Amino acid sequence: MSSATFVRLCFVPLIAFTLAFLALPLVRLFFASSESSAGWGIYLEILTTPRYLQTLVQTVLVSLAVTAAALVISTTAGLFLARNRFPGRGILLAILTLPLAFPGVVIGFLIILLGGRQGLVNQLTPGHVVFAYSLFGLFLGYLYFSIPRVLLTVMAATEKLDPALEEAARSLGASPARVVLDVILPGLAPSLVAAGAIAFATAMGAFGTAFTLATDIDVLPMVIYTEFTLSANVAMAAALSVVLGIVTWVLLVLARNFSGATVAGGG
What we know:
- This protein is mainly α.
- It is built from twelve helices and no strands.
- Helix 2 packs across helix 3 (50-83), helix 8 (163-171) packs antiparallel against helix 9 and helix 9 packs antiparallel against helix 12.
């Protein structure tokens, strides 16, 4: 058997897996969205029904807010941790990446312990301070598991920056702020775009945290769940799933075009 034939045979399991578990279910999902009285007009119904449109917009806005906050916090922390060695650094890094070990339901539970009716904030502050079941609580939950993903990407990218460029900027009289703005951030830009895209995609599709906290919150994963399980509206659940996938996929494509192959390593 030639090496070329062997390589082709190695692709057979990959092709079979792609067809069986990715392509065929996606095609079935797409056609399932038309299996209602509205037909393909169900997508127009999503855009003209206030509840569905508001949920779509709300999900996108929360995901964008989480992405922006995660980028700001993680870039600052990542630059510091990548450039400095100090006692306890390993412990601090382990704490910051701990959310990677938790499923969404546990993260939602932690937010309830912090900002629920019997939460820590409500017990320590005057008045009735409950935010766990609001959009702010959902934002904190999403941010909690987005920070380590962005942080690790930023730290890996920082290690690859050429220190000579920073030294050259300093020798020309650039202030520390100008070095960051003109040298470091442009060098990190592809990785930041990739990490932001991953954070956005994760927040768009996160279900466990939303399921735990969403008492009065409508985000797309929750609406898809209720349409499918409580209303038995399979067509609408499928259509909303397609819309969620398209919005997320478009952003990932744009990020990949900007950052190249870096987006693949962002997660």
